[in-house]
Amino acid sequence: LREREESGRRVGVDTGGVARLKGSGGRVLIVDDNTLQAQVMAQELSLEHRPMIEPSLEAALETARGPVDLVIVNVTSERFDGLRLIAQLRSKEPTRRLPILALVDTQDRARLLKALELGAHDILTRPVDPEELAARVRTQVRRKRYGDFLRQKLDHSLEMAVTDPLTGLHNRRYMNGQLDALVARANRGGDPVAVLVLDIDHFKAVNDSLGHDAGDEVLREFSVRLATNVRAVDLPCRFGGEEFVVVMPGTTLEDAHRIAERIRRDVGASPFRILGGEPLSITVSVGVAASRGADDTPASLLKRADEGVYEAKKAGRNRVVV
Ligand code: GH3
Ligand code: MG
Ligand code: MG
Ligand code: MG
């Protein structure tokens, strides 16, 4: 038993090591009509990477659009136009940034230069030296991975810049940008745009009686109800504090009014559950406005909706005012 346990552990360590290598390795697409040559390269790369062989140029272009980290293209022959593939890969998304290694004959300077000119990132000369293959592939895969990592980080920061961290709704900055564009379009005679301004009633009382964390929970639950009662095209945003705005593209005042009523009703329909506390009745006051002609601005639109909120509060809260 002990022996089996030990051998089991050894196997465990080994597969862990391979898994780690595979994780850092790349998905390498070898595009070559010389299958024997492709298989030799694939064999050499398979220790560290996940090679795939594609003998057809058309199919390669398609495969390269999927999860691939590096393309090795044979450009040595006239009838297999690898140079054209390089040009195609570099010309369009989503393959534009994909690293490319061009496989050329050592003495074929013309094709080597052409491949580089078309955007190959590096060259492999034939006959292929296994160590050189490993080194060049590793460098390109590492570069690709780092590029992916940076792009992901950038996407994430861009997303964070337009997202409200508490609720996950769009933030005020995002709302302003979208509203500017939509009002400008409406003013040029395009689709109308409507806005709702929503202000939770007596929210201060929630904070005062149950604490700030309970208040935050109410804001999150409110956001869920808001987001589930607007349409896919609408943009629910947290304007700040307990004030929310929904920007509604292509929406008339009447339609916006109807959706505002639906939100108001859903918020008041069932109590909000607070972790470790009594269910809480929440209501909201809503103002509605829609663009009306060339002189309208985002600010005037928001102001009219905000005046609706003011009227709703004055009239006793828990209502929609157009
Ligand atoms: P009204 O019905 O007139 O709108 O009354 P209200 O109490 O909702 O209005 P008021 O504007 O006086 O209070 C808003 C409160 O929202 C005050 C502030 O402490 C609280 N608040 C603002 N931002 C946050 C937040 O992020 N979390 C929590 N928990 N409270 C917040
Ligand atoms: Mg308020
Ligand atoms: Mg207020
Ligand atoms: Mg309020």
UniProtKB/TrEMBL annotation:
Residues 27-141 form the Response regulatory domain. Keywords: Phosphoprotein. It catalyses: 2 GTP = 3',3'-c-di-GMP + 2 diphosphate. Coiled coil: none annotated. Its EC number is 2.7.7.65. Residues 191-322 form the GGDEF domain. The keyword Phosphoprotein applies. It is an enzyme of class 2 (transferase). The keyword Transcription does not apply. It comes from the Bacteria. This is diguanylate cyclase. It comes from Brevundimonas olei. The chain holds residues 129 to 450 of 453 of the full protein.
